[in-house]
């Protein structure tokens, strides 16, 4: 009885799995990467904001605005002085006089002349003075000069300053919080999804790993038929497939070893039986013949009985000799001698041998081999073919036909023996390769049940196997063994290369 080991020896905690540890490290690094990206994005945002909305830039704008104010005041004073000087020599009496004065002082350098309007005005005060920002009084007239060029520049610069303040306020109160919120949501959602995917994958991996370890434990506890089934992912699938292949090989080797042990035991028993049975047969036969010859009496009935008994005993002795011969052959089954032989010739000779023995059976050889020469033991392989053809011929009843098919499947030689007999009953199919198992208990073809056992032993000696498929009306026996010619040629080539070097 196999002692079962503690379950904890076959299971590992999830946090001890190196794949899960690597995944956790990757998730941690990914999270750190997200956080660093978020941090540096904020730093970059603040840096750009500080550069674009620095105090120095604000001071420069204010200084420029002050310069525009001073320049505007200077232009107004200059225009006022120039008009005063012009009116000292000539007092304007008409609108044209006012226009001429304005042209003389080149008013277009300060104002847009297209929008200039001169009107009559009864405004108290000095003869020449500024009424408002763009209207000047010249005696009894007022000239609306329009927008001063410097004022437009001032307005644009002031607009830029206002927009800058608005944008800075938006960046501080709206855009930056939104950026922080969006980055936080993205990071959290990504981390949550990654954690969920990790947990799911880890559970699947842990489940598969536990199943793998449990399966190995079951197989190690002598459950030889255990195999992994289902679609296993990636490296676990590779491990499961390799395990199944290894388990199949171990099972086949174990079955082969058990069968060879049985064969060795059967051969030992056969050797002893042959020895024990053969020894008394010759004396018994001599005595019964001597007894038959010694009787010289006149009793006809007794003589008839004696002759009949003599014939029956001799017949049984011959049967026992045949049995002893079968035991001896089985006990002295030789080891294979591998050399280059013609497989087609071996099959043809065996078929011709039985063609005359079974004239009612139609024999056919199908050769699919391009090369006829392979490495095998021709005597042992002929013995396999003889057993299979003999069994097939004796099983024929109607439509008697036996086909021997020779083929090469990749690196495996295949010999099929196909007959159209009644088939092998399902309830005895598992026993057909067992020694001393036979269905031929009576008749001329009484057998010992050693033929197929010998065939299987020979197949194993050739590193191959023998199998069959049977149904009513068709039975196929398949002998397959490796093509030893390739390994021989490879070894020979290597030997030649080593010799030449």
Task: Describe what this molecule looks like in 3D.
- The protein has 501 residues and is α+β, with helices and mostly antiparallel strands.
- A 5-stranded mixed beta sheet has the order 6-8-9-11-10, covered by helices on one side. A 4-stranded antiparallel beta sheet has the order 1-4-3-2, covered by helices on one side. The chain has a two-stranded antiparallel ribbon with strand order 5-7.
- The two termini are 57 Å apart.
- The relative contact order is 0.06.
Low-confidence stretches: 1-10, 487-501
Rg = 58 Å
Number of helices: 10
Largest sheet: 5 strands, mixed
As for the number of domains, it is 4
Report the average pLDDT across residues: 77
CATH topology of the largest domain: Heat Shock Protein 90
Compile the SSE list and pairings.
Elements (H helix, E strand, L loop, with lengths): L17 H35 L2 H35 L5 H10 L12 E4 L7 E3 L4 E4 L2 E4 L4 H72 L13 H61 L5 H32 L7 E4 H15 L4 E6 L5 E4 L1 H18 L5 E9 L2 E8 L31 H11 L3 E7 L2 E9 L1 H17 L1
Parallel strand pairs: 6-8
Antiparallel strand pairs: 1-4, 2-3, 3-4, 5-7, 8-9, 9-11, 10-11
Helix pairs in contact: 1-4, 2-4, 5-6, 7-8, 8-9
């Amino acid at each position: 009885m196999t002692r079962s080991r503690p379950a904890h020896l076959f299971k590992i905690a999830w946090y001890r799995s190196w794949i899960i540890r690597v995944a956790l490290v990757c998730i941690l690094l990914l999270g750190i990467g997200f956080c660093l990206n978020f941090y540096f994005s904020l730093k970059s945002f603040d840096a750009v904001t500080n550069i674009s909305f620095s105090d120095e830039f604000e001071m420069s704008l204010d200084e420029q605005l002050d310069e525009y104010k001073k320049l505007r005041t200077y232009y107004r004073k200059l225009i006022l002085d120039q008009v005063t000087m012009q009116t000292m020599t000539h007092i304007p009496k008409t609108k044209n006089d006012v226009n001429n004065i304005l042209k003389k002082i080149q008013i277009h350098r300060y104002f847009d002349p297209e929008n200039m309007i001169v009107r009559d005005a009864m405004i108290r005060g000095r003869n020449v003075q500024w009424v408002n920002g763009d209207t000047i009084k010249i005696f009894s007239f007022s000239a609306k000069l329009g927008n001063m060029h410097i004022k437009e520049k001032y307005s644009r610069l002031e607009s830029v300053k206002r927009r800058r303040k608005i944008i800075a306020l938006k960046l501080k109160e709206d855009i930056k919080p939104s950026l922080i919120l969006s980055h936080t949501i993205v990071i959290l959602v990504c981390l949550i999804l990654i954690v969920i995917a990790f947990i799911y994958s880890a559970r699947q991996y842990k489940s598969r790993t536990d199943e793998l370890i449990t399966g190995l434990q079951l197989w190690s506890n002598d459950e030889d038929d255990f195999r992994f089934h289902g679609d296993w992912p990636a490296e676990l699938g590779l491990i499961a497939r390799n395990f199944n292949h290894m388990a199949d090989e171990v099972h086949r080797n174990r079955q082969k070893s058990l069968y060879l042990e049985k064969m060795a035991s059967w051969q030992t028993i056969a050797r002893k039986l042959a020895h024990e049975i053969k020894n008394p047969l010759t004396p018994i036969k001599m005595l019964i013949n001597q007894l038959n010859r010694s009787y010289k009496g006149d009793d006809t009935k007794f003589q008839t009985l004696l002759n009949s008994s003599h014939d029956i005993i001799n017949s049984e002795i011959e049967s026992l000799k045949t049995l002893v011969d079968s035991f001896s052959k089985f006990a002295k089954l030789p080891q294979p001698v591998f050399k280059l032989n013609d497989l087609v010739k071996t099959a043809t000779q065996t078929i011709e041998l039985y063609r005359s023995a079974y004239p009612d059976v139609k024999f056919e050889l199908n050769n699919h081999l391009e090369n006829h020469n392979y490495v095998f033991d021709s005597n042992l392989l002929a013995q396999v073919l003889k057993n299979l053809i003999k069994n097939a011929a004796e099983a024929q009843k109607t439509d008697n036909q036996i086909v021997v098919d020779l083929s090469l499947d990749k690196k495996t030689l295949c010999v099929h023996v196909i007959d159209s007999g009644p088939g092998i009953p399902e309830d005895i199919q598992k026993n057909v390769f067992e020694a001393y198992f036979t269905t031929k208990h009576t008749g001329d073809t009484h057998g010992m049940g050693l033929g197929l056992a010998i065939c299987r032993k020979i197949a194993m000696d050739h590193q191959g196997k023998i199998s069959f498929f049977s149904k009513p009306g068709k039975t196929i026996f398949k002998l397959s063994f490796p093509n030893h010619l390739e390994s021989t040629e490879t070894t020979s080539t290597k030997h030649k290369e080593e010799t030449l070097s």
